[in-house]
Structure formats: structure tokens, C-alpha cells
Design a protein that fits this description.
Blueprint: H1 27-33, H2 38-58, E1 74-75, E2 78-79
Length: 90
């Protein structure tokens, strides 16, 4: 990317990962993934931090939106605490 998103007058921000869903490669991943907030904390948060740092390095005016995992943080009738401690970039 050679130019920041903020230079486009029609773009107000970016969402790098729409409706993220957990996946698993082994039984331990499966167990950790079904714990509410774990996917957000251990997988998404570090990913979003890296993406945020890359975009800010190009253009400090970029705005990043981010979403939690859709499962298991929300199950019809129940909403659990998300695993994010801070937003990307603090």
C-alpha cells in the first residue's frame, strides 16, 4: 500500500476482517475456541494489533474499525464478555 486511506474523501475508515469466526486445528484449539472471549483475546487481538500498526505506519490519520468473533461471544439469548482488553493501538 503506497497511499493511506485517509487521502480518499469517500473513505471514513476500514474494517480489515468482517465477521470473524474461529476455527481450530486440534482438540486444544477447539476447547479454547468455545470459551467466550478466548478467540478475541488470543487470536483476534494480536492480529488486529499487527494490522493496526501496519496501517498507522503508512498514514497516521487512518481509522480502523474492528469486530469481535461472532461465536461464542453471542449465542441467541445470551451475550458474553468480549476478550478484548483494549482496542487496537491502545
Amino acid at each position: 500500500m503506497t497511499q493511506g486511506l485517509s487521502s480518499n474523501q469517500y473513505v471514513i475508515g476500514f474494517d480489515p476482517f468482517n465477521e470473524p469466526m474461529p476455527s481450530w486445528n486440534d482438540p486444544l484449539d477447539l476447547i479454547r475456541t468455545v470459551i467466550p472471549g478466548a478467540f478475541d483475546q488470543y487470536d483476534l487481538s494480536p492480529l488486529y494489533e499487527r494490522i493496526y500498526a501496519d496501517y498507522k505506519a503508512v498514514d497516521n490519520e487512518n481509522i480502523m474499525f474492528f469486530e469481535p468473533g461472532q461465536f461464542p461471544d453471542e449465542i441467541p439469548g445470551l451475550v458474553f464478555h468480549l476478550g478484548f482488553k483494549t482496542p487496537p493501538g491502545g
